[in-house]
Amino acid sequence: MRPLSYARPHDAATAVAMVERDPAAAFLAGGTTEVDLLRIGVHRHDLLVDINELPYREVEELPGGGLRLGALSRMSDVARDDRVMARYPAVSQALLLGASEQLRNMATIGGNLCQRVRCGYFRDGISPCNKRHPGTGCAAIDGINRGHAVLGTSPHCIATHPSDLAVALVALDALVHVIGPGGSRAIAIDDFFVLPGDAPQREHPLAQGELIVAVDLPGEVIAARSTYVKVRDRQSYEFALVSVAAALTVSEGVVRDVRLALGGVGTKPWRARIAEAELMDAPATRESYERAAAAELSGADVRRYNAFKVPLAERTIARVLERAS
Amino acid sequence: MPVDRVDGPAKVTGAARYTAEIVLPDLAYATIVGATIPSGRIRRIDTGRALAAGGVLAVLTHEDLPRVAEPPHLLPSLVGAAAPGESFFPMQDDAVHYAGQPVAVVVADSLERAQHAASLVRVDYARTPAVTTLDEGRDSAYEPPTLFGGLMPARMSRGDVDAGLADADVRVDVSYHFAANHHNAIETSATTADWDGDRLTLYDSTMGIRATQLTVAHLLGLHVSDVRVVTHFVGGGFGSKAMTWPHVTLAAMAARQVGRPVRLALTRPQAFTSTGHREEQEQAMSLGAKRDGTLIALRHHKLSLASPFDDWAEPATATTTQVYACPNTEGVHRLVTGNTMTPTFTRGPGESVGVFVLETAMDQLAYELGVDPVELRLRCHAETDPRGNPWSSDGLAECLRVAASSFGWARRDPRPRMRREGDWLIGTGMAAAAYPVAFIMPTQRARARIYAGGDAVVQTGTQEFGTGVTTVMTQVAADGLGLPMEAVRFEAGDTDLPNTSAAVGSSGAMMVSAAVHNAATALRDQLVAMAVADSGSPLHGAEPSDVEVHDGRMRLRSRPEVGETYGEVMGRHHLEDAEALGSWTPPPPDTPHGLLTFGAQFAEVAVDPEFGLVRVRRLGGAFAPGRVLNPKTARSQLIGGMLWGMGQALLEGNRMDPRQGRWSATSLGDYLVPVNADAPDVTIDLIEVDDEVVGPLGAKGVGEIGQVGVAAAIANAVFHATGRRIRELPMTAELVMDPP
Lengths: 325, 740
Ligand SMILES: Cc1cc2nc3c(=O)[nH]c(=O)nc-3n(C[C@H](O)[C@H](O)[C@H](O)COP(=O)(O)OP(=O)(O)OC[C@H]3O[C@@H](n4cnc5c(N)ncnc54)[C@H](O)[C@@H]3O)c2cc1C
Ligand code: SF4
Fold this sequence. Notes:
Chain A is α+β, with helices and mostly antiparallel strands and 325 residues long.
């Protein structure tokens, strides 16, 4: 591992300033992504600013019935928080289906949103990879791409966004609060994740030094009926082949409200807006679900090894919606 | 007897020291820089920045690494000679033959500094075209004269297969593709090298300390007596530590260079390119049978991706042409020369994949004939080996019957795709299992010493790699000496002790227990002889064969009250200790016996046909490994083997990216093995069969038979569940899911 410096400031302003003024600095939360990538030489930060002394560890009530997840709250704590389990079951389930218990005990909510892709060519440190070394090309497009995305791809990058949590958050319209050198701002979760386009190195709109402090879950009734389903080769400790976060309100056999997001298939956590539009006011039947799923996936861009994700995603969507209705 | 592991407390408390935990004064750390291309030449290596980095002691490249004294020649370690894993030693010139091949070794005063400096070494390559997949090399496939370091023929045939197939009433033709597999022992290989003048001590994570000793002495031109190898605990091997790979000798060379002890531990990614793998392969089988199920023809072909150095393939057709009676058989291995390191043994070598092909083909044949799959095996099982020799011990029929009954096979409705539970289709399947007993090892030796106080030390140069060998050998020694287990300490893991071969090919229990048993009984006999010849002994004048030993006391079988302890007779002779050597030489390889260990495997799966997911619900196996020395450790070995088979069936596989010639998976996040959540209920029946050929204790070994046949049972169950036969391993979702 490269030699580097380490700091552990006690206040947010210092932390932000330290990272802002040094382009080779990064925040360190649970370290489960950051230290891993430093060890394998993919991240090359010279300064780690440990933010674990900062006060963003709690899960708090929001006026209006929402919940605020502190950026430093641990995945395992949030997953087992009674309020999260009761009011945002998809969030709890997504967390518990991610990584392993040991990792979840370290990993934070803020870090989870900033985790990097699992593309093997990105991680090997030497293959052409526009995300790691802009302009070098993308080894995955014509390579071993079983795990790669079919939605939101670009000719420059097809890596899947790996987070489970983010899929649930995107379905439930969470809000990301950040503070930075220029003050604080809130970013809608769907805008927090950026399509690769021609700049896949950029994954979110944070400026150098901007710090996530909290993620808000809005107080909506439908969220309490949300669910998260993850399809994967083995039963634990693996990223999704396909995952679905969904919530559905049906009355008199008609879909009145729906939230749908996909994981494992998109270059960003994929809010399935086409499917949602198809479903609104449609009959709550398997046919509607299949039609909506097919519409969402109609724009899929498949490669040699990942074409199966299209039928897999369609089937998962249909089954999850059927169960949710 | 089911006895707890003697090494259990040390392992669970962390007191056990594995190779990469050995602390020596002044220890330095070496790390390998592996080639990033599969083929070509090194134009230039820039070591300047690495040398300037903090704590760096040396950067070795082909330009300054000394030449090895003798070129290596691959030979399986069981043979008991030098056993390099490939006929190639790196860093002798500028040629690159495979990605991951060591091109530099960096030594520093800490592991982190060594790894950082390694990342600063700049290698400029001139790349040449490479072959890293079967598809790329298919057209240049060839049939080698022999395999396995020349030990086995690449082609074996009997009768006339074409005529047999033409005569058949029913014919089954199958072909499969198998992705490459990696062993992924949880402890990656590591070596610590410590020179004292011209004498070298190696701490090595190996399945064969003797093989390490001989290989390193050979490559470095040292007297064997100047090389000592010490290995107390090994964190799994599965074949990856059966041969001696280049990093071991590189560690010794680096230590000599820097004049300090050096530890070289492979990283997880390096483990994918440094200790062999199971090669990418294709296998095809044709079965011809009469209506009643009698087999009349069996053709089994295998195509493997091998290395530029060795005609290596796991021999897959020797067992498949023996299990069932069949007059016309043919087994052929063909190779494609590829730019990978030489592949190697992987748990259940040959049989793991070969028996999969046989047993899925047999399942298909059972369906074609409308015969129950268990019944078909019972009908077809050969009474003798193909030469007409009786099995040293059999047990297949009993395994099939017992496992079928434990599993509840009788109630099975054979029709595929008939059972559904919610989203899941349920299926069951079975397979026979067989694994060879190999008599290619030299004489095995052990030493037993008893002290007048009644405590004993029994020694032999094997090593504990998690199989329970130290526990079982303590039992065997205590049994042979007639002492309680607590009175016996078993010592192993040092080449200064009497030598045994590498514990591979499931032969550890058989050969080591034979030597230990013979040493212990030789010592017992020596003391009994002393007593019966001693006029002061209550046993004076007795026939030695009338004397037994119980709890350290020699006594007359017919009148147990007559006797005395070992200590008493030793005391009268003023002996503080007594010692005996024991050895065991295997029967010649052409011994007139069929030599296979048999078993039967059953599986129940649930398949989600929409998603393509297979979840194994139950595994049941029955095995006939001769005499079972310790049912507890044997059961653990067999369960581990069966879960391995499940991984082989469903998860384990690696692909080469042919453009880069590098493996796509080089971590445990990408190369999937089963986790606890995947583990089903496993039941095991042990069938004891008498075997007088395989050594004085009649123990055949359980290290691999548990792994053989599991994948076939699972694949057959997937067929039963879904009505579809999957022709690739692993059977991943995209292969199993119903087509859109
Ligand atoms: C083996 C393994 C398996 C995994 N499996 C899954 C899985 O199945 N599903 C899943 O969703 N995830 C999985 N993960 C990813 C895991 O969830 C993330 O690594 C973790 O959530 C990151 O959180 P952290 O606190 O450890 O972040 P760190 O590693 O500390 O940081 C990650 C990145 O985020 C930045 N960062 C951290 N906190 C902030 C902040 N507050 N503001 C701005 N930037 C910040 C850091 O600078 C760094 O670049 C897995 C990880 C591993 C290692
Ligand atoms: S998919 Fe993206 S991350 Fe992977 S190699 Fe291509 S550019 Fe890099």
